[in-house]
Amino acid sequence: MRAARPPAALFGLVRASALMWIILAFVLAPLPVSAKEDAAAEAAATAILPEPADYRTEAYRAPVPASLAGGTVVDTAAAKTLHDRGAAFVDVLPRAPRPKGLPADTIWRPKPRSNIPGSIWLVDTGYGELAPAMERYLLEGLAEVTQGDKSRPIVIYCLRDCWMSYNAAKRAIRTGYTAVHWYPDGTDGWAEAGYALAPSEPEPRPDE
């Protein structure tokens, strides 16, 4: 006499239970070290960085805050709209001046720069501390592009993760400009969106 076989439904239940334990094992398994590092990096990248009480004076190429007290932070789409409307664009990317004492017949080729078309390039004006001559250079440049109207929209930028543009925007606000827009993605974000950049030369520095 043959033994009775368990019903087919029982086999189905066993298979479903085994599958559930396998899924749980995958879900609950510890992440590999590399995956943990990636998750930590992503969390750090999305963390909200608070604004400093004053200007940034070191480590200028680093993640920047998501806000600007007294100003407006804009993304690439908003920057493009402001550009189309004729807002004044100010590039503050630093560039080393011609070394002093360099013989006059020596060819000096500073690093080329392409920025957002129509911008004024006020080099080295985004440091946390500015010499009086460089601060005048910044303020005179801002007055030029706004035609002396401190209520005219200004967009200040350099590169992504660059505190230079943050500092310059904050300095503009503190000197009475009321429509300061800070574009933290700068020329990186502009180019990534497919918008053209134009070869540029800075306004002459006061120490050149």
Written overview of the protein:
It is a single chain. This protein is an alpha/beta fold. It has a domain at 64-97 and 112-200: Rhodanese-like domain (Oxidized Rhodanese, domain 1, 3-Layer(aba) Sandwich), CATH 3.40.250.10. The chain is 38% helix and 10% strand. It has six helices and seven strands; from the N terminus they run ααβαβββαβαβαβ. It has helices spanning 8-28, 33-46, 76-84, 132-146, 163-174, 186-192, and strands at 72-73, 88-91, 113-115, 120-121, 154-157, 180-182, 198-200. The protein has a five-stranded parallel β-sheet with strand order 1-6-5-2-4, sandwiched between helices. Strands 3-7 form a two-stranded antiparallel sheet.
Q: H/E order of the elements? A: HHEHEEEHEHEHE
Task: Report the end-to-end length measured between terminal Cα atoms.
Answer: 108 Å
CATH class of one domain: Alpha Beta
What portion of residues belong to β-strands?
Answer: 5-15%
Annotation field: number of helices: 6
CATH topology of one domain: Oxidized Rhodanese, domain 1
* Strand order across the largest sheet: 1-6-5-2-4
What is the share of helical residues?
25-40%
Q: Quaternary state, please?
A: single chain
Secondary-structure arrangement, i.e. CATH architecture of one domain: 3-Layer(aba) Sandwich
Radius of gyration: 28 Å
Short description:
The chain is an alpha/beta fold.
Q: Topology of this structure?
A:
Elements: H1 8-28, H2 33-46, E1 72-73, H3 76-84, E2 88-91, E3 113-115, E4 120-121, H4 132-146, E5 154-157, H5 163-174, E6 180-182, H6 186-192, E7 198-200
Parallel strand pairs: 1-6, 2-4, 2-5, 5-6
Antiparallel strand pairs: 3-7
